[in-house]
Amino acid sequence: MLAYYFQLGLRSLRRNPALTALMVMAIGFGVAASMITYSVFRAVSGNPIPGKSAQLFTPQIDSWGPQQNLKGEPAEALGYIDAMALMRAHEAKRQTLLYPVQLSVMPGGNRDLPLNANGYAVTADFFTMFEVPFRYGSGWGAQDDDTRASDVVISSELNQKLFAGANSVGRALNLGGHDYRVVGVASHWNPRPRFYDLFTTSGFADEPDIYMVFNRALDLQMRTGGRNSCRGSLAYTTWQGYLQSNCVWITPWVELDSPAEVASYRSFLTHYAADQRLAGRFDWAANVRLRDVMQWLDYEHVVPPESRISLAVALGFFLICLVNTIGLLLAKFMRRAGEIGVRRALGATRGEIYTQYLVEAATVGLAGGVLGLLLTATGVSGVGILFQPEIAKLAQLDFSLVGLTFVVAIVATVLAAFYPAWRAAHVQPAWQLKSS
C-alpha cells in the first residue's frame, strides 16, 4: 500500500505543478539555509577530543593581581616560574607544557630554499595525553625531556615535502641552524577547535609542522612564536630576565581521571598560590582556575557569535517556510475533499487517509531535499562571504550532511502535513456525496 500511495503522491504532484513547485521551493530553500549554517556551526562547536575532554584540564594561576588581571580571571597562560613549578611538583597523572615556535627548515638533499615550519615546543606527555596518532615512530620519552634531547616529531605533510612520504624516523633535520633527529611522523592530526592552544590561536589554524622538546627550546633561548602577554614595567633585557618576569606565554595541561583527582589538584593550585604570597611574590589572595576542555572552549568563546546568529536566523527562515508549506498542503488536500468523501464512503478508514496524504507529503519533502542538497552544495562553497577563511573552509558537504539534509526535509514536511492530513481525514463523506 505504501508503494501505491507513493504512486498516488507522484500523480498528485504532476497534477498541480505550480503548487508543487511552490512547496518544493519552500522546503528546499529552508533546508538549504539551515544546513549551510549548521555545517559551519557543527565544525566550530564540536568536541575536539570526545574520548578525553572530561579528563584534560588547563590550570590557571593569577600572577598579575586584582589590579591587572582579566576582570578577576587569571591570565590564560603561565609564566616560566609557575609553569616549571607545576612540572616539578608533578601532582597529575600526566602533564605537559607547550608554547608555539617558528623555525626554518634548512636546505638539504635536492632542496635549494628553506621552508618555514610552525609548531610547538612540548614535553613528552603531550602525545599520550592528546592521543596524537603516528604514521611512523612515536613521541619521545620523559628521559629525553630531562636530557634536553634534540628530538623532533614532524607532520605527515612536512614529511611528504622533505622525504617524499617515506619513513623518516632516525633521519637528520636542520631546524633554525641546529640538527635534530626525527623520532616520529604524526598522522594528519589537527583537532578543531585546537583546544590545547587557544591562548595563541583562534582554534582553527592549519596543522602544525613540528613538535620539539620543550627544554631544548629553552636552552636555545627560543622566544615564543605566538602571543606573549605582560603586565607592569618590563625591565628585563636578557633571556633570564624574561624568564623571571611576569610575562605569560606557556600553556599547561594536566590529565586527571576522577573527581577526587580534580579536587586534589585544585587544592594543590590554591596552596601553591598561597605559598607564593607567603614568599612575598604575590600580595593578593590565591586566585586559581582549573577548567576541562569543554569548559575552556566555552570560557574562550571559541564558537564565533556570527555562526550562532546565522544558525538562529536560518532556523527562523525554515520555520516560516514550513508554515507556508502547511498552508499549501492544506489547500492541496482540501481541494480533493470530494475524492476523500468517495474513498471514505467505499470503506477507507481515517488511518488510511492519514497514511496516503502523509506519504504524499513525504514525496514533496524528498523533492525538496533534492533541491535543498543542490542549494546546500552551492552555499557551502560560498560561506567565506560571511565567515573568516580559516572557519569557512571547515564547512564541508560530507555524507552525514547529505543524509541529514534529506532526513530534515522529509521529516519536516511530514510533520507540517499532520494538520492538513487531519483535516482531510475528517471530511464528512455524506456532505461530500450530497454536494457532488
What does this structure look like?
The protein has 436 residues and is α+β, with helices and mostly antiparallel strands. It has 2 domains: 2-47 and 303-435, no CATH class; 63-255, no CATH class. It has helices spanning 2-15, 17-45, 80-89, 125-129, 142-147, 156-163, 214-219, 239-244, 259-278, 293-299, 305-334, 337-345, 350-380, 389-392, 399-416, 418-425, 429-435; strands spanning 56-61, 94-105, 115-122, 134-137, 151-155, 172-175, 178-186, 210-213, 251-255, 288-292. Strands 1, 2, 3, 4, 5, 6, 7, 8, 9 and 10 form a 10-stranded mixed beta sheet that branches. Strand 6 and strand 7 (178-186) form a beta hairpin. Helix 2 (17-45) packs across helix 13 (350-380), helix 12 (337-345) crosses helix 17 (429-435) and helix 13 (350-380) packs antiparallel against helix 16 (418-425). The protein starts with a helix and ends with a helix. The mean pLDDT is 86. It is a multi-pass membrane protein. GO terms for molecular function: transmembrane transporter activity. The chain crosses the membrane at residues 21-41, 309-333, 354-387, 399-422.
Short summary:
The protein has helices spanning 2-15, 17-45, 80-89, 125-129, 142-147, 156-163, 214-219, 239-244, 259-278, 293-299, 305-334, 337-345, 350-380, 389-392, 399-416, 418-425, 429-435, and strands at residues 56-61, 94-105, 115-122, 134-137, 151-155, 172-175, 178-186, 210-213, 251-255, 288-292. With 436 residues, it is α+β, with helices and mostly antiparallel strands.
Task: List the keywords.
alpha+beta; 436 residues; transmembrane; 2 domains; 10 strands; 17 helices; ten-stranded mixed β-sheet
